[in-house]
Structures are given as structure tokens and as C-alpha cells.
Design a protein that fits this description.
By secondary structure, the chain is of the alpha+beta class. Helices cover about 35% and strands about 30% of the residues. The structure holds cytidine-5'-monophosphate.
């Protein structure tokens, strides 16, 4: 039996733009993604002798079969590599909120792929691992790569970008969740009232200008929110009032992130918001 534990980081969207609806039911996107220091812990054991894939998570409501992206990732790995599965156990300690726009499920799937690569097939190129990840979910390739990247296509076409300048990022998730397919279903691309300046964001990252990066954060999903709008706007306001350079929703929400230059302000913002929203976290770009 062999075992490996990896940290699986959450992601935020510095920008999220929807370009068009595709004939395959997906949408072409353009987004700048960033991993942050809020982690699930994913332990993978191989050679457990059963020939099956078992998933255990610290949250009872999560599926432990094919409905879990960690399970799907493991199956996709064996299918793509042709390696025999001599029994696999995956244990996930969840710290990233679920249905939150933080890629919690995708990052667990990505960690399983990385662990299987390291344990069973170290010569498998990262590129191939990302290809397998794309079959598991649109955000999985980015979660494998991590750091700062432009994601296009469904989200699987990646270009690594210069790292986000050092800063503090407060994540705050309201109680409700948002279903990604349901939110995509609300989008009328031609009616979107704005598009984030992705090129400007690339330039700001290249120049290492945190204030410009913050100014250019933007997510088109914010314009199709309905009942969720008021609470998300309230969190954005609270973060701004507490000194955030900017605050925006990540992914399909509902988590809002605030970008801070100073640790002290970020700490006190997180403390303040935690009184009302228990799922509030102080993180950094990683
Ligand atoms: O790829 P993933 O399984 O994470 O996508 C979940 C759902 O989100 C898709 O079934 C689709 O409804 C929507 N989606 C989309 N366009 C994308 C990514 C996801 O419409 N680029």
C-alpha cells in the first residue's frame, strides 16, 4: 500500500467573462484565475487490494461515488493511462465551502490526479494530466496548474500569467449556495451589461500593480443575480468599508472576495464579517 496527502487549494476569479454559448451546451469563457491559501486535504492510498474506488469525506452530504469529482478523476486516470486499479481509497478533509464558486470539488479532483501521477506514473507529463482533468470538469485543469492563469474555452485552455502581487484576500460565503448550471442558464450573452477588461488585467499583473489588478476585478455573473443580489452587494460593501481595494463575486458564487493591501485591515475585516457569516476566511494568493 502507498499513500500520499496533498493540499488542494481553492480558487478565485479575478475576472470572469462569458463570450458565447456553444452548440455543446457549454459557454466559451475568458477568465483570470488565482489559487488561494484555503485548502482541502486529500489523501490517496493505492494498492489497497479491492480493485474499487472508495471516497470518504468529512462532510456527510457529499457523494462518495461517481457523483464526487475525486471519484471521477480517479476513474478518468485509470481509463486514460490504461493502468490497472489495484484498489484505491481517497479521504478528503473539506475546508473549502461547497457550492461556493471556489472550485472545491474540482480542486479535490485535481489533487487526486496529481497524487495518482506521483504514486503510479511520475513520468506522465503535466500537460497530459491537465488533459485528463478536462474530462473531469472545466475548472480541473486550472486546479492542477494553480497560481495565476488565463483560462479560455470551457475553462480548460490555460495560459500561465505573472503571479498576483502579494496581498491579503478575505473570502466570505453567505449561507445559500448557487448552482453553476442554473446560473449559466440565466445568462443571455448579448444582454450582458459589461465585460471585464481581461487584457487590462493581464497588463496589470505583468506590471505587478496590485491597485490596478483590484480595480479591474469583475464577474459578469454578478449581473444575472436575482434574489441573491442584495446579500452579495451587502458583503461587497462591508469589505469595501473595511478597507478592501476591491471586492467581487468569484465564479458562479455566492462567495465574495475582498483584496487588501494591508494584513491588519484584512484581519479586522475577516473578524468583523465572521460575526455574521461563519464561512469567512483570511487567505493569500498561492
Ligand atoms: O465542466 P463542469 O462539469 O464543471 O460544468 C458544470 C456545468 O456548468 C456544465 O454542465 C454547464 O452547464 C456549465 N458550464 C458552461 N460553460 C462552461 C463551464 C460550465 O455552461 N464553460
Amino acid at each position: 500500500m502507498r499513500e500520499l496527502t496533498l493540499r488542494a487549494p481553492a480558487k478565485i476569479n479575478l475576472t470572469l467573462d462569458i463570450l458565447r454559448r456553444r452548440s455543446d451546451g457549454y459557454h466559451d469563457l475568458r477568465m483570470v484565475m488565482q489559487t488561494v491559501s484555503l485548502y482541502d486535504l486529500v489523501t490517496v492510498q493505492t494498492e489497497t487490494g479491492t480493485g474499487d474506488i472508495y471516497v470518504r469525506t468529512s462532510l456527510a452530504e457529499l457523494p462518495n461515488g461517481p457523483g464526487n469529482l475525486a471519484w471521477k478523476a480517479a476513474q478518468a486516470f485509470f481509463d486514460a493511462t490504461g493502468l490497472e486499479n489495484n484498489g484505491l481509497e481517497i479521504a478528503i478533509v473539506k475546508q473549502i465551502p461547497v457550492c461556493a464558486g471556489l472550485a472545491g470539488g474540482s480542486t479535490d479532483g485535481a489533487a487526486v490526479l496529481k497524487a495518482l501521477q506521483q504514486l503510479l506514473l511520475p513520468e506522465l507529463p503535466e500537460e497530459k494530466l491537465e488533459e485528463i482533468g478536462a474530462q473531469v470538469g472545466s475548472d480541473v485543469p486550472f486546479c492542477i496548474r494553480g497560481g495565476t492563469a488565463l483560462a479560455e474555452g470551457r475553462g480548460e485552455v490555460l495560459t500561465t500569467l505573472p503571479s498576483m502581487p502579494e496581498c491579503w484576500i478575505v473570502l466570505c460565503k453567505p449561507e445559500f449556495g448557487i448552482s453553476t448550471p442554473e446560473l449559466f442558464g440565466r445568462v443571455r450573452v448579448e444582454a450582458l451589461p459589461f465585460h471585464p477588461d481581461t487584457e487590462g488585467m493581464r497588463d496589470a499583473l505583468a506590471a505587478g500593480e496590485l491597485r490596478t489588478v483590484a480595480q479591474l476585478t469583475g464577474n459578469v455573473f454578478e449581473s444575472v443575480l436575482m434574489t441573491e443580489k442584495r446579500e452579495i452587494a451587502a458583503i461587497v460593501r462591508a469589505l469595501r468599508d473595511a478597507g478592501a481595494l476591491a471586492a467581487a463575486m468569484t465564479g458562479s458564487g455566492p462567495t465574495v472576495f475582498g483584496v487588501f493591501e494591508e494584513e491588519e485591515k484584512a484581519c479586522s475585516a475577516a473578524e468583523q464579517l465572521r460575526g455574521r457569516y461563519t464561512q469567512t476566511y483570511l487567505t493569500e494568493p498561492v
